[in-house]
Design goal:
By secondary structure, the protein is an all-alpha fold. It has 4 helices and no strands. Helix 1 packs antiparallel against helix 2 and helix 3 packs antiparallel against helix 4.
Length: 107
């Protein structure tokens, strides 16, 4: 890839990131809400399915933006939501926090 093409690609990825940032933040907020709910009561199937969908989307997209650790954490969340109907509440909160910190380390 030529330097010009690499710069153009980087600019397009940065533009995509900015365009999708509001949806990303909303997804992270939803995962936080699900984790907080799971800490208080058994997780509803609706929340579990929503968490599964969100974590799957994040696992598939974060690597494109260079957030490889975020992809790994999202994959762990996806497996957690997929594998256990009761969802391990002790792991859910820390993983959602780790995911947010992997994407926004200074926030």
């Amino acid at each position: 890839m030529t330097p010009d093409a690499a710069a153009e690609t980087a600019a397009l990825i940065a533009e995509l990131w900015q365009r999708h940032l509001p949806a990303l933040l909303q997804r992270l907020d939803t995962l936080d809400r699900i984790a907080a709910s799971a800490a208080a009561t058994p997780l509803s199937s609706e929340d579990r399915n929503e968490g599964l969908g969100i974590s799957h989307k994040l696992a598939g997209s974060l690597g494109m933006y260079g957030y490889h650790h975020g992809t790994e954490v999202a994959m762990q969340l996806e497996l957690l939501f997929r594998s256990d109907p009761s969802v391990d509440q002790d792991r859910l909160g820390p993983l959602t926090k780790e995911l947010r910190e992997a994407i926004f380390p200074t926030r």
